[in-house]
From TrEMBL:
Described function: Receptor for MSH (alpha, beta and gamma) and ACTH. The activity of this receptor is mediated by G proteins which activate adenylate cyclase. Mediates melanogenesis, the production of eumelanin (black/brown) and phaeomelanin (red/yellow), via regulation of cAMP signaling in melanocytes.
Subunit structure: Interacts with MGRN1, but does not undergo MGRN1-mediated ubiquitination; this interaction competes with GNAS-binding and thus inhibits agonist-induced cAMP production. Interacts with OPN3; the interaction results in a decrease in MC1R-mediated cAMP signaling and ultimately a decrease in melanin production in melanocytes.
Keyword annotations: Cell membrane, G-protein coupled receptor, Glycoprotein, Membrane, Receptor, Transducer, Transmembrane, Transmembrane helix
Membrane protein topology class: Multi-pass membrane protein
Subcellular location: Cell membrane
Protein's name according to its UniProt entry: Melanocyte-stimulating hormone receptor
UniProt family annotation: Belongs to the G-protein coupled receptor 1 family.
PROSITE patterns xrefs: G_PROTEIN_RECEP_F1_1 (PS00237), G_PROTEIN_RECEP_F1_2 (PS50262)
InterPro entries: GPCR_Rhodpsn (IPR000276), GPCR_Rhodpsn_7TM (IPR017452), Melcrt_ACTH_rcpt (IPR001671), MSH_rcpt (IPR000761)
GO annotations of cellular component type: plasma membrane
Main location: membrane
């Protein structure tokens, strides 16, 4: 089954073209030589996937090993790591499947390949949805811990966190199954894009509000120590930098893929949009890269988790 460059399917039946979404065939053919196409080698996909796999497995093991980390916040971080792990593994599996198909090794196993690809697509979509959900859950958890500090442990209890985690996984798997089954319906794509925008808006509002509260707290401390100007300036720079990194990486890594979905609805046959469609592999690589960065932002900043990770690496169980 020859292909110019394997496109991850995600949005179309694997047995139809093996090059992506059927909606996009005409668009891609209409693009001219001016179209910028960033080619992503399969080796890069595999390398990023392996790095993400190792990194997120270490996060899950570290949290499972240390009883002190068995709290709602770390449960959400653990589930985010598991989601990111599944994103990377499922995309790597589909890359491997495409490479095997290109070699002609599974030419006689068409039905098996179709079923296997459907399972992989459910994993990809489900893990993407769950990653976004747990990013939102972490933002909500941090917001409650700051604005309702005295009542935090009565609001965010372990049973509540467990029910929230179960609900997120069930909703993610169910929605991804529907997405794969009804991939060619515009409403499905619009729901995914709306969900991404809602998650982005939630994170922006909560983190900006948390930054404002932290700024007020720093201002009060500065007034007590009569070092107001210096503390204000340093806090503004540090707080703005942290917020920019956190939200900027989220938007840069996830935004292009959901813009891709948006353009499928708005201009599926326009040459300019067709040029954008050609870079699907790049957008998926950015999502895998995000699964590598997430542990650095949400997990490894914890000193206790880093100490546990060190113990895990040294095999001191």
């Amino acid at each position: 089954m020859p292909m110019q460059e394997p496109q991850r399917r995600l949005l179309g039946p694997f047995n139809s073209t093996c090059t992506g979404v059927p909606h996009l065939e005409l668009s891609a053919n209409q693009t001219g030589p001016w179209c910028l196409h960033v080619s992503i080698p399969d080796g890069l996909f595999l390398s990023l996937g392996l790095v993400s796999l190792v990194e997120n497995v270490l996060v899950v093991i570290s949290i499972a090993k240390n009883q002190n980390l068995h709290s709602p916040m770390y449960y959400f971080i653990c589930c985010l790591a598991l989601s990111d792990l599944l994103v990377s593994v499922s995309i790597v599996l589909e890359t491997t499947l495409i490479l095997v198909l290109e070699a002609g090794s599974l030419a006689t196993w068409v039905t098996v390949v179709q079923q296997l690809d459907n399972v992989i697509d459910v994993l990809i979509c489900g893990s993407m949805v769950s990653s976004l959900c747990f990013l939102g859950a972490i933002a909500v958890d941090r917001y409650i811990s700051i604005f309702y500090a005295l009542r935090y442990h009565s609001i965010v209890t372990l049973p509540w966190a467990r029910w929230a985690i179960v609900a997120i996984w069930v909703a993610s798997i169910s929605s991804s199954t529907l997405f794969v089954a009804y991939y060619n319906h515009t409403a499905v794509l619009l729901c995914l894009v709306t969900f991404f925008l809602a998650t982005l808006a939630l994170m922006v509002v909560l983190y900006v509000h948390m930054l404002a509260r932290a700024h007020q707290h720093a201002q009060a401390i500065a007034q007590l120590h009569k070092r107001q100007h210096l503390v204000h300036h340093g806090f503004r720079l540090k707080g703005a930098a942290t917020l920019t990194i956190l939200l900027g990486i989220f938007f840069l890594c996830w935004g292009p893929f959901f813009l891709y979905l948006t353009l499928i609805v708005l201009c599926p046959k326009h040459p300019t949009c067709g040029c954008f469609f050609k870079n699907l592999n790049l957008f998926l690589a950015l999502i895998i890269f995000n699964s590598i960065v997430d542990p650095l932002i949400y997990a490894f900043r914890s000193q206790e988790l880093r100490m546990t990770l060190k113990e895990v690496l040294l095999c001191s169980w």
